[in-house]
Amino acid sequence: MFSSSQFDATSAFAGGGFSFTQQTQPTDSTPSPAKSRETQGLVPVTVKQISEASQSGDEKSNFVINGVDVANVTVVGMVFEKVGRNTDVAFILDDGTGRMKCRRWMNENFDSIEMEEILDGMYVRVNGHLKSFQGAKQLVAFSVRPVTNFDEVTFHFIDCIHNHLQTKSQGEGLTPTQPQLVDTSLSTPMRNGSNGSQTAPSSQLSGQFSIDGLKSCDQLVLDYLQQPSSIGQEKGIHRDELSRQLKFPVEKIMESIRSLEEEGLIYSTIDEFHYKSTASG
Amino acid sequence: MDTSSPSVFVNAELLRMHVGKKVRAVVHVIQSDGEITTGKSTDEHQLIVKGLPHVSLMSYVEVIGIAESDQSIRTETWTNFGNTFDTQSYNQVCQLANGEFKGLFL
């Protein structure tokens, strides 16, 4: 089950109060919107969402939430009825939307050390694998960490809503315009990893659209710089002007500038804010 | 798996829509005298919380319990959220969880 080395790092570091979990989502390598089990990472969900998830096949198959295969999830809630045995620790997780059974297998010393700290009534973040056992959905946890800064609780629910919106719009084949930028406003100090990985899928879609012939930001920047008026300017064009004229935020312009520069289509002139097209027009 | 008794995210404004039901709210404690605690909700209105032990003033407390009226909650479970808390974000979660994204919560 823990074949991917990414998850070992997750459980090893989870006790230190850091969350490396979201960095395990390497979606950059797969341009297709359909996410397979291996590339997905931890999906933030509420217990209510889990209760409504269907299974694609038999008990051994993946769960489906919002039309997407979901294997590993992250949930934040309170611990109740913790029962410790030699082989495993079981508890109920109540996140306010529902209660579900969780189980943590005592595979290594670290597992028991981490679970010893967990007490009934504590708010925890549980990262684990969704499983079906005798018809009932269960969470097999590989990481259980107490919440110390309670903004994490608020954050988790915002994360669930955000993820829900993202998978819903990806399923409908969205047009990747300004909505991607909403990601940056959701970042909090402890979850910057999550923020980075969530923006990755969106930017791939914009790449796909430019292949299809629609004008991406890259193309628009290049077009602007290749206009005779821009070529005529010896100093080149300032990126703020590009941002104003093309009505894109500066971050987006800079992204396009970076890729165009890499392609050898534009170059910087007097400083890193001024650019010219390499074509002589 | 049991989703039969969820606790609704509420602020003062939403509390009145869920009187008699299980709710959860975060209050900023203004006054605490044994049985009755007075606090400021995340949308800046006054709420009464019954059944809390003595909590330090100016701390944030999450209360889960039954809404007894449109201004008071009787505590079943409570958690001390500390001295710093982002009430604005929590308030927005209350609005989203009762509005557009109700399906993810209730």
Annotation, overall tally of beta strands of chain A: 12
**Element order, helices and strands of chain A?**
HHEHEEEEEEHEEHHHHHEHHEE
The number of helical elements of chain A comes to 11
By secondary-structure content and strand pairing, the structural class of chain B works out as alpha/beta
Q: Could you tell me the strand content of chain A as a percent range?
A: 15-25%
Describe this structure in words.
The complex is a heterodimer of chains A (281) and B (106). Chain A has helices at 5-14, 37-40, 47-51, 109-116, 151-171, 182-185, 192-211, 217-225, 228-232, 239-246, 250-263; strands spanning 43-44, 54-55, 63-65, 68-70, 72-84, 88-94, 99-105, 123-133, 136-146, 237-238, 266-268, 274-277. Chain A is α+β, with helices and mostly antiparallel strands and 281 residues long. In chain A, the strands form three sheets. In chain A, strands 5-6-7-9-8 form a five-stranded mixed beta barrel. A three-stranded antiparallel β-sheet of chain A has the order 2-3-4. A three-stranded antiparallel β-sheet of chain A has the order 10-12-11. In chain A, strand 11 (266-268) and strand 12 form a beta hairpin. In chain A, helix 8 (217-225) packs across helix 11 and helix 10 (239-246) packs across helix 11 (250-263). The radius of gyration of chain A is 23 Å and the shape is elongated. With 106 residues, chain B is α/β, with parallel strands linked by helices. The mean pLDDT of chain B is 94.
